[in-house]
Amino acid sequence: MCNILEITLLDPKTIIKGDDTSVKKDLCAMFAFAFTFGLGSSLSDRSKDYFDTTVRENFKAAAYPNGFTVFDYYFNLKEHAFKPWSERVKAFEFSKEQPFFDIMVETEMTFKHSFMLELLLSGSKPIFFTGETGVGKSVVIQNTLNRLAEKDLVPIYINFSAQTESKRTQDSINDKLEKISRKVLGAVAGKRNAIFVDDINMPTVETYGAQPPIELLRLLVDRNGLYERTEWDWKQVVSTTLIAAAAPPLGGRSPLCTRFSTNFNMFCLPDATEGVLGNIFNSILGGFLKAFNFAEPVQNLKEAVVLSTIETYVKIQKELRATPAKFHYSFNLRDVSKVIQGILMTKNVSINNVEVLGKLWVNEVSRVFMDRLIDDDDRDWFISETMDMLSKNFKSQLENDDLFGSNKVKFGDVLKIDAGKVYEEIKDQGKLVKALENQLEDYNDTSTNKMNLVFFEDAVLHILRIMRSLRQPRGNIMLIGVGGSGKQSLIRLSAFMYEFQFRQIEIKKNYNQKDFNEFIKELMFASGVMGKEIAFTMTDSHILKESFLEDINNILNTGEVPNLMLTEDKDYIN
Ligand SMILES: Nc1ncnc2c1ncn2[C@@H]1O[C@H](COP(=O)(O)OP(=O)(O)O)[C@@H](O)[C@H]1O
Ligand SMILES: [Mg+2]
To answer: In terms of C-beta distances under 8 Å and separation of at least 24 residues, what long-range contacts does 541-546 make, across chains too?
Structure first.
């Protein structure tokens, strides 16, 4: 609370004008605002109502308007009144050039939290965002930091996982800090750093309760420095603020030591209501369909697509719970987002009527949700729910058999790979198999590693799934099945069709972390610097050390492996 009050009052832009009574009233309101967001914002949704009543009773002079809760207002000093945050939210504009992963639809929640983040960063105060998985913690922080990076902020991204060690954490931080003098580390002249540690409560708790990476960060927030590890000299860290995000403890996430968390200004992001989710994804999908001139009737179904996707997500989360045998039944907002991303892969020529849009939607929710299910009971449940929504929301006449029967719904670009990779419905199974056979022939003509594949329906479906992931930015896929079921061969063929390099580590005697690092570095140079497209495949036999998985996890989350690049590598990249 004091942080917010101090930063607001000391801000040169804060000019309190008016007569004596008015100034006093303004000060009182500013205090109430700082009180609300400094103390109340860490509360969960349920307690916020109680807090609202308390603030209104105790700060009568602040004159909060009625209508919303105190959390929905900011104090507008010019107008001497509380105004709803929602008035400041800008309408979403879809841009054809913007990559899918950079899209953030501004909502009251994102605006408010982005504002508080910027405010506290301006006073170098550490900030912690918590809230359930998928509420938008990472999106809001990344988006705000990227925006501020255009001014004077240098964002430093770090991801934590169960395997994270204190030494590697320190290395990744050191890697990004400038050496200011022998004893001082900090930011480049004229800039300030913001270190963002996402999923901060992931590190495994040791037998006796310690979390070494957290202790390291505690020194950083609490004492503003670190001990360097060769001579154990103290290094002061300046112009650097720590930002953390984590969902509440449960499922691999541990409670954080309070001596650590007490250093932060804590914000608990509310669960997005179905209305807010609908608004976010309707804006994105509607913007896309309009910008690319999809047929009017197709555009009109955007709400059906979004509503059905959200309903699927809400239902599957409730009905198909994770159990030890189905531990991977964990669904979050990212899955909803992936369905929409799938629909954004299409062009108006291939989705020209409402029936094919319905099929596309079925295909995308099936890829994102159904492919994860492991038994017939669960799949049957999913199919029946999907068919219900199709008839209820899309008013579709399609029958179960048209989509999930003998001829399953298929989308892909196999028939139009050379004609701009058009993602479209593939109706003619014969044509599809013929195309794949031709591709296989080409593959065998040019490769030393000959394959003999039979394209029965499941194999074809697997290829389409793999290709769908390969063509997506940040695409990734995990294939699970007994050995010898052809997982790698299908990836090889898919990669060949897209002219992607197929790469795997080559295991030799004493293969170690260093070999693995060299391999990853080479992949990154090839893809990031030379712009080559690569299908990097890893099988269980390649996981020689747990730490390999940690690196893969980092690549999937942040696109980086801490400490991989040496100074000369960075010079090469530049
Ligand atoms: N306001 C928003 N605009 C666009 N996408 C959003 C928004 N809020 C959440 N999302 C999407 O929801 C998903 C989950 O958000 P994320 O920030 O990763 O959640 P968290 O970090 O809280 O677990 C992401 O795929 C993100 O793209
Ligand atoms: Mg996150």
So the answer is: 541/507, 542/504, 542/505, 542/507, 544/507, 544/511, 544/512, 544/516, 545/512, 545/513, 545/516, 546/163
Instruction: Find, among 71, 73, 72, 69, the residue nearest to 83 by Cα.
Output: 73
Q: Which fold would CATH assign to domain 90-271?
A: Rossmann fold (3.40.50)
| DSSP result, 313-335 | HHHHHHHS---GGGTT----HHH
Q: What are the b/e assignments for 367-405, b being 16+ CB within 10 Å? A: bbbbebbeeeebeebbbebbbebbeebbebebeeebbbe
CATH class of the 282-396 domain in this structure:
mainly alpha
pLDDT confidence band for 3 (50 / 70 / 90)? very high
Residue 107 CA to ligand 2 centre (angstroms): 18
Domain 501-573 -> CATH class: alpha beta
pLDDT band at 307 (very low <50, low <70, confident <90, very high): very high
102 CA to centre of ligand 1 in angstroms: 10
Ligand 1 pocket, 307 CB below 6 A? no
The closest alpha carbon to 32, from 18, 65, 271, belongs to 65
Report which ligand 1 atom has the smallest distance to the Cα of 142: 17
8-state DSSP, 250: B
Every domain of the chain and the residues it spans: 1-88, 90-271, 282-396, 501-573
Task: Evaluate: CB of 137 within 6 angstroms of ligand 1.
Answer: yes
Q: What pLDDT does residue 145 have? A: 96
Q: Is the CB of 185 under 6 A from ligand 1?
A: no
Atom of ligand 1 nearest to the CA of 141: 17
pLDDT exceeds cutoff 80 at 337:
yes
Q: Model confidence over 384-434: pLDDT tens digits?
A: 999 999 999 999 999 999 899 888 999 999 999 988 899 999 999 999 999
Going from the Cα of 343 to the center of ligand 1, the distance in angstroms, rounded, reads 17
Alpha carbon nearest to ligand 1 atom 4, residue: 104
The pLDDT tens digits for 515-545 are: 999 999 999 999 999 999 999 999 999 999 8
Centre of ligand 1 to C-alpha 135, Å, is 6
pTM above 0.85, yes or no: yes
Residues 513, 517: Cα–Cα separation, whole Å: 6
The size of the chain, in residues, is 574
DSSP, collapsed to helix, strand or coil, labels residue 152 as coil
Q: Whose CA is nearest to atom 6 of ligand 1?
A: 104
| Among candidate residues 333, 276, 284, the one with its CA nearest the CA of residue 305 | 284
Question: Ligand 1 atom 13: the closest Cα is on which residue?
Answer: 334
User: How confident is residue 54, by pLDDT bands cut at 50, 70 and 90?
Assistant: very high
Ligand 2: centre distance to CA 333 (Å): 10
The reply to whether 282-396 and 501-573 are identical in fold is: no
Tokens of 528: 């990031």
